[in-house]
Amino acid sequence: MLKKFLIVTFLLSTTTISQAQIALTCSPMPGYSAMREVTVWAQLSGVGDAQLIYWPKGQTENEHISEIVTSERKHGYTVHLIADEVEPGITYEYQIAINGKPQKTDFTQEFESQPLWQYRTDPPSVNFAVGSCTYINEVEYDRPGNGYGRDYEIFDAIAKESPQAMMWLGDNIYLREADYDSRTGIYLRNSHTRQLPEIQSILPNMHHYAIWDDHDYGPNNADRSYTGKYWARDAFMDFWSNPSYGFHGEGITSQFTWYDAHFFLLDNRWWRTSNERTTGERYQLGEEQIEWLIDALKFSRAPFKFVCVGGQVLNTFNGHENLATCSEEREYLLQRIVEEKIQNVVFLTGDRHHSELSKYEKDGVIIWDLTVSPLTSRSYDAADEPNTLRIKGSHFAQSNFGLLKIDGNFRERVLTIELKDKDGNLLYTYPISSVNN
């Protein structure tokens, strides 16, 4: 009996010690924001009970605590904590508690709830960061040769701009050969990228939304035939906090508003046919997703409608993975926008390892495509590529990020596009008015 008691006591004590050692693996990260609800993502180092403690900025006496969420191995020990006692238009400070112990980090931790401005005031100013193609080197699993990732200091440059939120435009991780053939590998790659020291400065004090492209989804140029797509979707939902994911348990399509800006998150992988097909239909988005998009765009009252998709839409060059390689689908999508007379559509795209702005005009409808790439991956010069819609002077082949700034009164909003280099130096700026478009 004594021996059994000692064994039980030992097991209980080691469990207590183990729980006490559970900590955050990286900075927590605010996800979607609504007027009465905000989510904060975190990753723990093992199984533990996590809670979100939050209070209006400067009012520590007005503290709120979320429900407990227990991290699980099958979810990569990630948790999504819901702040469901927020009021509209408030900035909150927060902490993550693990097993009842608040965790300290090196950076300011804040999130904000969406303001209730409609029918009351002009919409507030918008300041959104955008970017794609984040390769983080890991020598053991990289291809031999010089590392493909570089310029990690770009995240500090983004942090210094203090954007309210960031839109990740795909290739937010790069799955390697050792990763995409198993669920374990996909989760390890997501964890490795999220734990990069340089990225910690942008995680905890701005909101984050994401789409994916081939390197988040599976092998290079992966399509609907990839058998690990459900693993990738599980990991995407565990490591990002978008408001919703896809249709009927398929894909990652979603949408959200930020003040008076409306973002539509498309999936260019889940339903995509093979790039190598020579018979039958070829498409990237699929008719159901396109018709959903047209409905959503028509419903929106936003002065600017940002359609986020992994690959370029307007580029006329029939090459790489541009939508021009599926010419019938590209023509159908653009024609539907024109037929419905939907103004101020701005495609936000990545993939190409260079940045540029393209403009399409037909029957009085103007459509834009802002490509922002890469953040930390190797860049490629495509200045000689025959994109007939590229705005002269907008092509940049270097590490860079974008800023979308929207200002002005309710009747005339102005979108200012900025591209900045890895050190935060201005490369390019372009204004678009909501009424002259």
Q: Can you describe what's shown?
A:
The chain has 437 residues and is of the alpha+beta class. The chain has seven helices and 21 strands. It folds into two domains: 23-112, Immunoglobulin-like, CATH 2.60.40.380; 126-433, Purple Acid Phosphatase, chain A, domain 2 (4-Layer Sandwich). The chain is 19% helix and 27% strand. Strands 3, 4, 5, 7, 8 and 9 form a six-stranded antiparallel beta sheet that branches. The chain has a six-stranded mixed beta sheet with strand order 12-11-10-19-20-21, covered by helices on one side. The radius of gyration is 22 Å and the shape is globular.
What key phrases describe this protein's structure?
21 strands; alpha+beta; 6-stranded mixed β-sheet; Immunoglobulin-like; 437 residues; disordered N terminus; Purple Acid Phosphatase, chain A, domain 2; 7 helices
Q: Structural class from helices and strands?
A: alpha+beta
Q: How would you characterize the largest beta sheet?
A: 6 strands, antiparallel
CATH class (first level) name of the largest domain: Alpha Beta
Q: What is the CATH topology descriptor of the largest domain?
A: Purple Acid Phosphatase, chain A, domain 2
Q: Specify the CATH homologous superfamily of the largest domain.
A: Alkaline phosphatase D (PhoD)
> Any idea what the CATH architecture of the largest domain is?
4-Layer Sandwich
Number-wise, the strands total: 21
Bin the strand percentage: 25-35%
Helix content: 10-25%
Q: Please count the helical segments.
A: 7
Number of domains: 2
